[in-house]
Sequence to fold (202 residues):
Amino acid sequence: VQILADTHGGVWAVGERECSIQRRHQKVVEEAPAPLVDRVGGDLRDRLYAAARDAAKAIDYVGAGTVEFLADEQGRFYFLETNTRLQVEHPVTELTTGTDLVQWQLRIAAGEPLDAAEPVRDGHAIDPAADWQPQSGAVHAVDIRSDSMFSGLSRPGIRVDAGIASGSVISTFYDPMLAKVISWAPDRRLAAAMLARTLADA
Fold:
């Protein structure tokens, strides 16, 4: 559960993400909203959000963070940890809530209070990393279709967050997170189809 907390006692639960698909303990696919939460239904989402808010309030947390839980098909969940930073999978939350989390971090640091109402969730976003395993050496060409004016929550689109460009040289000390490709659409099926097409064409 993505949280934002200000210095005035305000705490937002800004949507949840599911990062269950992992390889060698690294996240491979990140989704928002969490398919498990949608599948279980009931009041699971409300209970997760309440637990995340309570965790932040209990330690007077300020800023952006993620409260992580392990959940099962019966709607039971268990606290794992709190990541006291903005995580790399934050774009799927930004695209499904229309919330600029980096901007809010700066606003909170400047002493601004959060708005009274939490952001409303809309649509589905997916961010894959499967089989995109960079190697060291020169990047001859980077060509991933994206929507340059894409802002999410208005029309389906592809967002690319990248730290490389054609001609970049990746040393042996590279960070394996060189680029992220994120899709947003009104539903999960369309978001997955758009993402698959974009990766196939890249």
